[in-house]
Amino acid sequence: MRFQFNKVQRKFREDLSAFLEREMLPQYETVFGTYTEEQYWFGRALARKLADRGWLTIGWPREYGGGGKTLLEQSILDEQIGYHKVPRVGITGLNFAGPAIIKFGTEAQKREYLPPIARGEIEYCQGFTEPNAGSDLASLEMRAFRNEDEFILTGTKIFTSYYAHADFIYLLARTDAGAPKHRGISLFIIDMKTPGINCRPLYYINGEVAAQIYFDDVHVPISCLVGEENSGWYYAMTTLDYERAGLERYARVRRLFDDFVTFCQTARYDEKTLGDNPVVQHKLANLKVGMEGWELACWKVAWMQSRGEIPNAEASIAFLFGTEQRLRFAQEAMEILGFYSTLTIESDLAPLQGGIEGLSRESLHLHGAGTMEIHRNIIAQRGLGLPR
Question: Pick from 131, 207, 161: which is nearest to 361 by CA?
Answer without folding.
Answer: 207
